[in-house]
Amino acid sequence: MTSHGLEYEGCNFFRQRLVLSTLSGKRVRIKGIRSRDDNPGLRDFEASFIRLLDKVTNGTKIEINQTGTVLFYQPGLLLGGTIEHDCNPQRSIGYYLEGLLMLAAFMKTPLKATLKGVTNDPTDPSVDLLKTTALPLLKQFGIDGDGLEMKVWTSRGMAPGGGGEVIFSCPIRRTLRPVQLTEPGKIKRIRGIAYSVRVSPQMANRIVDSARSVINKFIPDIYIYTDHLKGANSGKSPGFGLVLAAETQKGFFLSAELSSAPQGQGPTILPEDLGKNCAKLLLEEIHRGGCVDSTNQSLALLFMTLGQQDVSKVLLGPLSPYTVEFLRHIRDFFQIMFKMEAKPPLEDERKGGEKVLMTCVGVGFSNISKVTK
């Protein structure tokens, strides 16, 4: 700890540090951001994320040195309200949404954000994926109601051109409720969405057929919607992809997705292969198991940390490296340590891979800026 608050080095886990800094009110200084790179300093998409945080807060102080290798961030109060943001097309809107999902419930006024840019790309979770998995997770923690929605509004935008538009609105809560998510239950149905823009509408049908050929062996209740957009609603670049979500008997969602490589970059993939590979990814996610899929592990752990001063338990599959680093950051910002118990699968049960039961007592975080009527 320095007089500057917390100090970090390097460009990794950039969003985690800024989001946790905003929630905890602790200042953070990040130095050595790609200092040895040919092109040193913050990338455009990171600067765009800082601008987004600046829009949803009031009184945030940000200082960046000339080369962009050192950032000082002093968080202000979360304000919320109606905002519009043009996301940098280097990363998809999912990159920005993940940050907003962590902050949205603690605003002063309910957030209604319109984000423009790339809705689906191969690196970040897409809007469809976050809608099917992150929103039900928010409901588990008591963030629900009419105001909670996320959808592709007018158009989809594939990388690299973008041109998509997404709206995300979220109600505010004073406190989060503690959760006990320890029994995922069996998979009861699989839903999905195959999308195609600026390519033949037949592409989506080919994806659906090949994905079904893999999953049909396990479960009959599969329904994959096709979403073909044309004209002004199809963004600026061609592409196609598939998002699959498996729902368990207890109402938890595990998901997987794949999208075609951006035009002119990387190897081309046939829709048949994409469908099969995505189905296999979903089966792998089901094998990992738990009550929260690997994309949303850190979101669940954050809400457990911020819960009331009561015990929360969540059963997760194997922790991703990103989640492990997130736990370290939670320890830095909130001084919360989790109790982790490995739950090896029993011999006779077909329960997939090793699970981890995460237990913690919340810090009793309460939304001080929420207007009380």
How many H/I helices? 8
Radius of gyration: 21 Å
Euclidean distance between termini CA atoms: 39 Å
Largest sheet: spatial strand order: 1-2-5-4
Classify the beta-strand content into a percent band.
25-35%
Task: State the low-pLDDT regions, or none.
Answer: none
Helix content: 25-40%
User: Which secondary-structure class do the elements indicate?
Assistant: alpha+beta
Mean pLDDT: 88
The total of beta strands comes to: 18
The SSE string, one letter per element, is: EHEHEEEEEHEHEEEEHEEEHHEHEE
Largest sheet: 4 strands, mixed
Envelope shape: globular
InterPro entries: RNA3'-term_phos_cycl_insert, RNA3'_phos_cyclase_dom, RNA3'_phos_cyclase_dom_sf, RNA3'_term_phos_cyc, RNA3'_term_phos_cyc_type_2, RNA3'_term_phos_cycl-like_CS, RNA3'P_cycl/enolpyr_Trfase_a/b, RPTC_insert
Organism: Gadus morhua (Atlantic cod)
Keywords: Nucleus, Ribosome biogenesis
GO cellular component, one term: nucleolus
